[in-house]
Write a structure and sequence with these properties.
Strand content of chain B: under 5%
Largest sheet of chain A: 9 strands, mixed
Order of helices and strands of chain A: EEEEEHEHEHEHEEEEHEHH
Radius of gyration of chain B: 30 Å
CATH class of the largest domain in chain A: Alpha Beta
Strand order of the largest sheet of chain A: 11-10-9-12-8-1-6-7-13
Strand content of chain A: 15-25%
Largest interface: A-B, 19 and 23 residues
CATH superfamily of the largest domain in chain A: HUPs
Radius of gyration of chain A: 21 Å
Oligomer: heterodimer
Number of helices of chain A: 7
Strand order of the largest sheet of chain B: 4-3-5-6
Largest sheet of chain B: 4 strands, parallel
Chain lengths: 284, 665
């Protein structure tokens, strides 16, 4: 049997799971209450997630698959979805409902995995989910793996390269960037990938893309649409309690050499120290 | 001249004139492919006089020594136009000649023709000498077209002398004062050809040679670089009176393409520019990119535009915008008629090319239009700009520093905020003054000076946003437009009427570009403002001068773009007691520091750095201090003197710092 490339794309759909986060360089912790001051802080797309958009679009360029951007958040999170659309994502879904509010990683990954099931029901087979390694506001790196477990997808975290994707055999081979080493892994599709930022250099939107994204329709899925059990959602579905937020004490620094008088000597000292601490290495 | 000859000439003339008119009309139709440009509305008398000054007066041509040769050729041609008119008329009807104006006028005219023809012949010889012996590297001295046209001009003169020399030898030059022809050419021809039938035949041969060269030249013009004979004069008439020919904003509509990706995306003036270039090479002689071995050569950009227009023009005229066209922009730098992408990204928009172009070709707007295409339609640009674009759009400064840190530099300086109440002047600090460690000191010096003079001023603090200069020059017009509109709103919110800017890029952008977005306020550069304060006696300089020999650098966006040359010089003279040292490349020929046009945010190969080229020139003047008036120049010089291991020998200071230092003691 010869597979027909036109009637049935071999790679059907890639879902990217993205998040709108406060621009953390601009977030300050209230010294009195110990909570984040979010007022007036602009939101951005999670910097890890912009690499998901790029990687999914590269798969789209290569395999002609569809790319769906998925996010859960308040109504203003459409800005993040529009950014994805401007770059070339095909459709965008915002999961937004008061009952989803205050969700920790457990409740969030539950809702997102249910949303992926719904995407399969509405749009057809999903072959890959791509997430950023973590978000810069929570930094837990738990939501992606949580989704993979619930959906029973192959779980491939910390990916810094998609080495190959065999659509006939339905396997994917990736390189994982671990501390001090790299790992080549092959897994069955469908799979969920979490990406490190080194994986690619994100593209920049064209004006056409931006204008089209302004006019594009964004699906809004609330719980009257998803119909998920209320006890598993939002605060109710979240066993995590935030007791206190604080900036960790930082050890006092050390001045190496004399950068003013002898910058080259100071650099040599610094390099030596970094190698001792195994923070940098020579060669591959 | 026989009747047969008259009839033959009438036929040849008619054919030649018709083919010339068809070619000229064809050229007009190609130029009309361009997009509209509204510059010709109004100011007709001003345009007329500028045409007289620059086209007929050749003011910019003679700015270079060799230009005088062109001046003489040009005026020789104008005067000989009368000779050729007579030649054509008498070729048709033997009785038509300047003799009809009376003997004295005729005698004067023939005297002029004789001397001018000799002069033109001399100019042709000088031009050959330049191309064959001097071989200046900024022109294409091996251009076949150049030799050929010079040959035609020389041939025309020789034919002129040949036909009149034969007349002189035959004693038929009655009433004409042609001393050279009579005294030199006639006797030689008489000696060679005798005084009989042979002389007559040779005279006729020269006459016909003259006719054919003249008519051939007429028809050759529209196909050669000497097309400029037809287009340079209208190009001077259509010049821009603003030095900064800011590219008009885009109209953003779904489905539209932006900038210039094809030759007919340019305006008709751009296409006229392409046709008006005669490849004199002054643009590339002064271009910082060309002079540091980068792919950009402004002369070739214009030449590529012309080749592209001639290659694609007809296809586009007949509605073909897709098949088999020569691309306007490509990755290769070598294809004639195609501008290489690396060339497009090498431009610092310094405008040195435009300042010296004798016929007012506008190179920089064309490069910006092509950048607009690359950025907006294709999102294709050097990768390092990704970070710059994102940071500027997201955080309104090129480094991506938190906007909430924008007012930190002013901590402890007690500068009022506009939000605290009305003031006379807004001090628009700009990103460099607000975030860059070295340039914060300059912003601080400006504040000290303004306070010392008791000026009522304030800053926007954390509300201030980037002006978007680099965004616009890099072709990211979509984001620039958003930034400009937000800034204009912000200025209107506080009823700002007068802005002092310390960065020439902010200054020029707010002053010249923002007009397109409805900002009509007075924008003043700190060197203008500080000088006024000094002249009015509101600022008094005391204390010691510790700057030694001060060398001045003209920043492009201050000098060439806005004509501010004298103010910084006078400030230095007042503050140090002596005039500044001058660079060799100064005033409107000042050599860019390398950071304009968004180049500040792009990589530059170590061996091709513009700032190193400039710093070496500066160091050769043995200054103790180099004075700048621009944060980009500050950074480029600071880096440059470090690279040249001269950081301990020479200080880089802003003009404002010179003033502030003299206030303190």
């Amino acid at each position: 049997m010869t597979p027909s490339a036109t009637s049935r794309p071999k790679l059907n759909r890639v879902v990217i799971s993205v998040k709108q986060v406060p621009d953390t360089t601009q977030v300050k912790v209230d010294p009195v209450t110990g909570t984040l001051i979010r007022e007036g802080v602009p939101f951005i797309i999670n910097p890890f997630d912009i690499h998901c958009v790029e990687e999914a679009l590269r798969l789209k360029d290569q395999f002609g698959c569809k790319v769906t951007a998925l996010t859960m958040g308040p109504p203003n999170a459409v800005a993040t979805l529009r950014k994805c659309l401007a770059l070339g994502v095909d459709d965008a879904i915002l999961i937004s409902d008061r009952v989803f509010g205050g969700a920790d990683t457990l409740a969030t990954s539950f809702v997102l995995s249910e949303a992926v099931r719904r995407i399969e029901a509405e749009y057809g087979r999903v072959d890959l989910i791509i997430c950023g390694k973590q978000t810069i506001d929570g930094d837990t790196a738990q939501v992606g793996p949580g989704m993979a477990v619930r959906l029973r997808y192959s779980q491939l975290t910390l990916v810094d390269q998609i080495v190959s994707l065999d659509v006939e055999q339905r396997t994917i081979r990736v390189r994982r960037k671990l501390e001090g080493r790299k790992e080549l892994v092959e897994a069955k599709l469908p799979a969920l990938l979490t990406l490190v930022r080194e994986i690619n250099q994100p593209r920049y939107p064209t004006v056409q893309g931006r204008l089209a994204a302004e006019e594009a329709r964004i699906e809004l899925w609330d719980n009257s649409f998803l119909k998920l059990p209320i006890e598993k959602l939002g605060l109710k579905g979240s066993p995590t309690n935030v007791k206190k937020i604080f900036a960790p004490e930082r050890a006092v620094g050390e001045i190496l050499g004399d950068g003013e008088k002898d910058p080259e000597g100071a650099v040599q000292l610094l390099i030596k120290r970094l190698i001792e601490k195994d923070l940098i290495s020579f060669g591959a | 001249m026989t009747h047969v000859e008259n009839i033959c000439f009438a036929i040849v003339l008619t054919v030649a004139v018709i083919t010339f008119l068809l070619s000229a009309w064809h050229l007009v139709r190609l130029i009309r492919l361009g997009k509209p440009d509204t510059r010709l509305r109004g100011e007709l008398s001003r345009r007329f006089f500028t045409m007289i000054e620059f086209a007929f007066g050749q003011k910019r041509v003679v700015a270079e020594r060799f230009g005088w040769n062109h001046f003489l050729l040009f005026w020789g041609f104008i005067i000989l136009f009368l000779a050729n008119a007579e030649f054509v008329l008498s070729g048709l009807f033997a009785s038509l000649s300047w003799k009809l104006l009376g003997g004295f006028v005729y005698a004067l005219l023939t005297l002029a023709f004789d001397l001018m023809s000799l002069l033109v012949l001399g100019c042709v010889a000088v031009a050959y000498y330049r191309r064959l012996v001097l071989k200046p590297d900024y022109i294409e001295y091996n251009s076949r077209d150049g030799y050929f046209v010079l040959g035609l001009v020389g041939g025309l003169m020789i034919a002129f002398f040949g036909m009149h020399g034969a007349e002189a030898a035959a004693g038929k030059l009655d009433g004409a004062w042609m001393p050279f022809t009579r005294a030199v050419v006639g006797p030689i021809m008489g000696a060679i050809f005798g005084h009989g039938a042979a002389l007559h035949t040779v005279g006729r041969i020269f006459w016909w040679l003259h006719a054919f060269i003249f008519l051939f030249f007429l028809n050759y013009l529209p196909y050669s670089k000497h097309m400029h004979i037809l287009t340079a004069i209208p190009n001077c008439y259509c010049r821009s009176f603003d030095f900064v020919t800011t590219v008009p904003p885009e109209q953003y509509v779904t489905g539209k393409q932006y900038g210039a990706s094809m030759i007919d995306d340019f305006s008709w003036k751009d296409l006229l520019d392409f046709s008006a270039c005669t490849e004199c090479g002054r643009c590339n002689k002064n271009c910082p990119a060309t002079n540091t071995g980068k792919p950009l050569n402004p002369r070739l950009v214009i030449h590529d535009g012309k080749v592209n227009l001639l290659t694609n023009g007809d296809k586009i005229r007949y509605g073909n915008r897709t098949d088999g066209l020569l691309p306007l922009i490509g990755e290769s730098e070598e294809v004639a008629g195609m501008v290489g992408e690396k060339s497009i990204w090498s431009c610092t928009t310094c405008g040195a090319c435009m300042a010296v172009c004798p016929v007012f070709i506008e190179h920089v707007p064309k490069i910006v239009k092509m950048r607009r295409h690359l950025v907006q339609n294709l999102a294709k640009f050097p990768p390092e700009l990704n970070v710059f674009f994102e940071a500027t759009e997201q955080r309104s400064n090129p480094w991506g520093i938190a906007p909430s840190d924008r007012a930190k530099w002013a901590k402890g300086l007690d500068v009022p905020l506009l939000s605290e109440g009305p003031v006379d002047y807004l001090f628009y600090v700009g990103c460099a003054g607000a975030f860059d460690a070295r340039n914060k000191k300059v912003a601080t010096s400006v504040v000290h000076a303004l306070k010392a003079a008791g000026v009522s001023f304030g800053i926007l603090g954390t509300e201030e946003k980037c002006c978007g200069d680099s965004m616009r020059r890099l072709g990211n017009e979509f984001v620039f437009e958003k930034m400009a509109k937000e800034n204009v709103e912000l200025f209107k919110k506080y009823n700002v009427t007068k802005i002092i800017a310390y960065c020439p890029h902010c200054y020029s952008t707010l002053k010249n570009d923002y007009k397109q977005f409805g900002l009509n306020v007075q924008v003043i550069h700190h060197t203008e403002f500080l000088l006024d304060l000094l002249r009015q006696g509101k600022l008094k300089l005391t204390g010691q001068d510790g700057f030694g020999r001060v060398l001045i650098h003209d920043s492009c966006y201050l000098g060439r773009y806005n004509g501010i040359y004298e103010q910084p010089r006078e400030i230095i003279a007042r503050a140090t007691g002596s005039k500044p040292l001058e660079m060799d490349r100064r005033l409107d020929k000042s050599f860019c520091c390398g950071a304009g046009g968004g180049r500040m945010w792009m990589e530059e190969e170590p061996e091709h750095r513009v700032n190193i080229n400039r710093v070496r020139e500066a160091l050769s003047k043995k200054p103790d201090t180099i004075a700048v008036a621009c944060p980009y120049c500050m950074t480029m010089y600071e880096d440059g003197v470090k690279d040249e291991k001269a950081a301990d020998k020479v200080k880089i200071v802003d003009i404002a710092e010179i003033v502030a230092a003299r206030l303190q003691a």
